[in-house]
Structure to design on (561 residues):
């Protein structure tokens, strides 16, 4: 990230906040302080309006008919595909597959690519940081194929041990599952370097970008990854939609995942032939409205600029880290040098669940628990942590509210 | 309901200094209770004699609501008959799900302090877990979960 990129100013952020009606909500008679963005982000009015407009003037089923609405809906759907292509820097639009989310995207690759290529004794490398959605599908496939999973350790800061990673490779390594940004710790992994190592050994890499796409400017060609996945609802889009990016050559060679309409060329009871990509992996009527709304979300973010968003969030992270680190009894979990705006912490003598409940009384929404990353929790010897995760519509004033609220809870328990 | 009202002195006190803390060396019944959604984990050991709770001890890692509920539960059931303890389990479950009016006759004593949890659906499981675990221990089960 270039030093020359100007972070969002306080005034710009105030203007941005006006775009998000939910930020005016009161919880328990207090202003909402929404710091659970890693779980799901909020939607600006313009993006909500896109859904409304689609269903007011453009909706019909796509790829089906020659009438005006069907052609319009199809054009908008495909335009959204191109928006995604541009947003992540993919070479071709047909390399963008729309799914129901990150989890489905990973399952698609695990079952379609994994099952068709893995043989008994083959190996899959995952890191300790992975979200359950980038562990369980591989476990299912490994069991079905007789493959083995090897895990890359992390250090106490929550950084992946790249040397240990390198040493895990052997002649049997076929697939690497790698998170771009850890949802539990915020660690940003050196993806480009790790992809290069994997390719030296002939393995393909699926990068889980669920926590990265909302916070970093992406270029999948620069990363050189084979698959990249993310969800719409984590970057101001609707729930129920996500993306799988895959290299065209790989996707073309992969067998279909779900069967049904749209993913076929011809169907007879004797033999069915499949459509080319991306259609091959988009069986049935997709979440058309949601896809188009996702396109609007990407427009909204691109308008602000992902680099500027990243720079502003880095400021928020620094502010929050300093404030919390200065509080006695508060332990930061995950202190990697390169982090996205996610702050996991524990408070001595206060269980995360109690903290979360009491913070909620002050209008503050954080997440407590294992964050679907039980291996990370185990690594740090905790059952759960508190997690505050920031977006470009959060402010330093909100971080102050968080810190003051935590201090009051510490008082209560003392 | 403001969850702060739940965190009043008695609960904070029992969380800080839980009674009957530590598993029994000699026990006749034991069980483990887990709430996978929030990470509460309770271990319970009982020593029954003539169908009476002679001794009880618990340990584990849990939130304040769970720990205080467990602590107060152990003081209440000590010396009681098995059927009385089972009745208390039912009454506690009913009270925390709004099916039992704390003003009506019951055997829960000061545990009515948990009545408010019925308005905090995400915390009901925390309060109930120790009782769930007690029920499992009395039935001879090893592990129980809130799910």
């Amino acid at each position: 990230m270039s030093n020359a990129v100007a972070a969002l100013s306080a005034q710009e952020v105030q203007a941005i906040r006006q775009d998000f009606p939910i930020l005016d909500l009161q919880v328990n008679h207090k202003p909402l302080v929404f710091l659970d963005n890693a779980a799901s982000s909020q939607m600006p009015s313009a993006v909500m309006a896109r859904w409304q407009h689609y269903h007011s003037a453009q909706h019909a089923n796509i790829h089906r008919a020659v009438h005006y609405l069907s052609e319009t809906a199809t054009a908008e759907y495909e335009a959204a595909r191109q928006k995604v292509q541009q947003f992540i820097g993919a070479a071709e639009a047909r390399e963008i597959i729309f799914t129901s989310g990150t989890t489905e995207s990973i399952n698609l690759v695990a079952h379609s690519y994994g099952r068709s290529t893995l043989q008994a004794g083959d190996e899959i490398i995952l890191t300790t940081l992975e979200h359950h959605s980038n562990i369980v599908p591989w476990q299912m496939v490994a069991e079905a194929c007789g493959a083995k999973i090897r895990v890359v350790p992390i250090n106490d800061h929550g950084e992946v041990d790249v040397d240990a990673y390198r040493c895990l490779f052997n002649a049997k390594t076929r697939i690497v599952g790698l998170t771009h940004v850890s949802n539990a710790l915020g660690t940003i992994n050196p993806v480009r370097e790790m992809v290069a190592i994997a390719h030296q050994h002939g393995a393909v890499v699926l990068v889980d970008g669920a926590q990265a796409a909302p916070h970093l400017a992406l270029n999948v060609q620069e990363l050189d990854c084979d698959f990249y996945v993310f969800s719409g609802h984590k970057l101001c889009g609707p729930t129920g939609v996500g993306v799988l990016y895959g290299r065209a050559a790989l996707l073309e060679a992969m067998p279909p995942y779900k069967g049904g309409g749209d993913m076929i060329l011809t169907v007879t009871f004797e033999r069915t032939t499949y459509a080319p990509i991306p259609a091959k992996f988009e069986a049935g009527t997709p979440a058309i409205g949601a896809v188009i709304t996702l396109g609007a979300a990407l427009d909204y973010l691109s308008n602000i600029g992902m680099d500027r968003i990243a720079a502003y969030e880095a400021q928020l992270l620094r502010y929050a880290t300093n404030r919390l680190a200065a509080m006695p009894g508060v332990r930061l979990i995950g202190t990697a040098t390169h982090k996205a705006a996610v702050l996991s912490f524990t408070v001595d003598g206060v269980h995360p669940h109690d903290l979360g409940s009491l913070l909620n009384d002050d209008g503050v929404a954080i997440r407590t628990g294992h964050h679907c990353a039980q291996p990370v929790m185990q690594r740090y010897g905790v059952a759960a942590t508190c997690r505050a995760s920031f977006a470009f519509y959060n402010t330093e004033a909100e971080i102050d509210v968080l810190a003051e609220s935590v201090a009051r809870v510490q008082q209560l328990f003392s | 309901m403001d969850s702060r009202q739940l965190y009043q002195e008695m609960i904070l006190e029992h969380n800080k200094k839980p009674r009957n803390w530590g598993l029994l060396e000699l026990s006749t019944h034991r069980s483990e209770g887990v709430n996978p959604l929030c990470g509460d984990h309770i271990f319970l050991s009982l020593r029954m004699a003539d169908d009476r709770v002679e001794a009880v001890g618990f340990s584990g890692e849990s939130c304040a609501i769970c720990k205080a509920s467990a602590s107060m539960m152990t003081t209440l059931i000590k010396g009681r008959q098995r059927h009385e303890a089972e009745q208390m389990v039912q009454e506690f479950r009913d009270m925390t799900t709004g099916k039992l009016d704390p003003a009506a006759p019951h055997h829960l004593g000061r545990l009515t302090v948990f009545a408010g949890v019925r308005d905090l659906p995400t915390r009901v499981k925390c309060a109930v877990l120790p009782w769930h675990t007690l029920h499992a221990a009395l039935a001879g089960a090893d592990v129980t979960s809130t799910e």
User: Anything to note?
Assistant: The mean pLDDT of chain A is 96. Chain A has 14 helices and 17 strands.
